[in-house]
Amino acid sequence: MPKLPSNFDGDLSEVSVEDFGHAHVRLADGSSMSVEGNWLQHPRSRAHGFEVLGTLGVASDIEPPVQVWDPEAGEVATVELPIVEEQDHRTLAEHKNFLAAIHGADVSLVTLDEALHVQRNIDGIYRSAETGREIRL
Amino acid sequence: MKAAVIGGGVMGREHLKALAQIPQVDVAAVVDPDTAAAERVLGVAEIEGAQVFDNSEEMLRHLLSADTDAQTT
Fold it and tell me: What predicted TM-score, i.e. pTM, was given to this entire model?
């Protein structure tokens, strides 16, 4: 087999976790969400991130972060937002927040309910893949 | 505060590297069915003195009776 493109420095034959997944999630309010995950192969310019596509605008974690339809100008305009420099690596910041939260010195950035909600969605995506059918939560 | 990390893969390594930068945290254990992988990520994160377990139940039995406060996955 030819050497595959990879974001992983090690030996691919030693990798035992799954890679590459996609799901389409329809939400109760009529909006929908496309979830894509792949970290090992298929190197792309964007390693991770999000885009929110609305009727009149787009928000994302890539530049420009927010663009909205300007009805007066009749064009899409970029909205300038203040950029907050990250003090720590994100994983380190998450741990510091978690530790502060369990000591009562801060509020957890992610609540238990939010974590369970995400897990229910992930479980539903797996069940859908296993059954080949839409799963209603 | 003592912490245990479950998973000795890429993300486990990243968690350990982050925890190693927090002075208040003492990494007490790493769990992975592949104990060599757990040892490897501890080495990458330059963490010494942590125990290695091949399952989380065993780790919990050993450590929860002590004073481990947090786990990360």
Answer: 0.70
